[in-house]
Amino acid sequence: MSTTIIIGLVALLLAVLIAVAIMLQTIEKNNKEKRRIEAALKNRARNFQHMLESFPEGFLNKDLRLLVCKCLSEVYKQLKNLDPKNATYAKNLAAVDQQVAAVKNQADNNNVVRLSDPAQIKEVQKLLQSLHGFIGKLNKSKKLPNDQAKAYAQQVRNLIIRTSLDVLISGVNDATNRNKPRLAIHYLHMIIDKLNKENNSGQYSDQIAAYKQQITELEQKALAHDEHMQEVAEEWENATEDDSTWKKNAIYD
User: Fold this and answer.
1) Among 70, 69, 82, which Cα is nearest to 41's?
2) Phi, psi of 243 (to 5 degrees)
3) pLDDT (tens digit per residue) in 153-175
4) What angle do CA 225, 226, 232 make, to 5 degrees?
5) Distance (Å, rounded) from C-alpha 224 to C-alpha 179?
6) Is this prediction's pTM over 0.85?
7) 12, 74, 223, 230: which has the highest count of C-beta atoms within 10 A?
């Protein structure tokens, strides 16, 4: 075998080895990217599932609950396309699609669910912030039109405001029950300040007016309470003076 043929075979073998190495490297890179995407999608699915399970019953209206269900369904569709042989993805997708259909058939829930536990409020606000951020991502990726994204974002924003007020409303109720009208008035002023900051469109004007009326009523109650306490103090002072006089007289008797 001539030297030229040997050199040619060696060169061909090297070319094949290089091609195989590049191919294996590309496959590994693709598999790594696939695993990264799959992990990100699974994490997103867990987040949406957590939302569906963690929001208090009736807290989300029909539109927002349907949005979360559709987002979860979209994630499982992507996971199924990524790994068609994965039976779990197919099963979860079918379950979520059934949930979407069930939510669509539900009546609109207009009831306001108030929260009073600070820990629960903190967790719910965290979930709402996450949902608000994902709405922005959907809009940015052109998967959600501007008008729909704006409407959904405003609904979530309203819930964030409402839950922040729930803590203060709980304070108002507690102060009222403990007959501390001035403390209740303090909480009401904080509520009004928060609502005024969000009242550009006038959507909170009626609530603000109602809280102001409540302040007026509590101020009258506080005034009556102060007058009563003044009377009690005066009576106590008179009683103390009478007791002191009696003791002095008793000494000289």
Assistant:
1) 82
2) -65, -40
3) 999 998 999 998 998 998 999 99
4) 90
5) 12
6) no
7) 74
Phi/psi at 121 (nearest 5 deg)?
A: -60, -40
Q: pLDDT tens digits for 33-77?
A: 778 888 888 988 898 888 888 888 888 888 999 999 988 998 899
- pLDDT digit string (tens) for 3-34? 777 776 667 777 777 777 777 777 777 767 77
> Which tokens in the block code for residue 106?
């539900």
Cα separation, 119 vs 147, whole angstroms: 33
Is there a contact between 175 and 225 (Cβ–Cβ < 8 Å)?
A: no
